[in-house]
Design a protein that fits this description.
2 domains; 5-stranded antiparallel β-sheet
Length: 139
């Protein structure tokens, strides 16, 4: 305990339990042991510029892409860039695209449009692989 007493300690109104006191409510097992066993299935993703129906203002071209791997690692091919506005349009959808959703759910759609009305850039979200990641390692 933080203050040397027995039982939960309180800091700023939050109750802190000693590790051996933290139990999983569903199984009654030590939460530290069950957390180590929990895994989350996530897809690695590639976001690809599928087409540009207007005029390209940001310098992207069909085929340009970026990858999201290991839940939250974004990488862009060397020597390339990705438009901040196109990125901002697709970012909120990526966590849903990493997970299994019902095929009839609107989140299952793989096309996303950039918000620039002059450009009409259309991106496609591709699932490139599956990973089983310890749930405690996810952000």
């Amino acid at each position: 305990m933080l203050d040397g007493s027995s039982g939960p300690s309180s800091i700023g109104g939050y109750c802190l339990l000693e590790q051996e006191d933290v139990m999983d409510e569903m199984t009654g097992e030590n939460a530290d042991n069950t957390a180590a066993q929990r895994r989350t299935e996530l897809s690695d993703l590639r976001v690809v510029v599928d087409r540009i129906e207007g005029r390209s203002v940001c310098g992207l071209r069909p085929g340009d892409s970026f990858d999201v791997t290991c839940s939250s690692r974004l990488s862009i091919p060397a020597g390339r860039h990705f438009c901040l506005y196109a990125l901002s349009a697709v970012l909120p959808l990526l966590p849903a695209a990493q997970r299994s959703v019902d095929p009839d759910d609107w989140l299952a759609s793989d096309e996303v449009a950039c918000p620039d009305p002059e450009e009409r850039l259309i991106m496609r979200i591709e699932r490139t692989g599956r990973r089983s990641i310890p749930t405690e390692d996810l952000t």
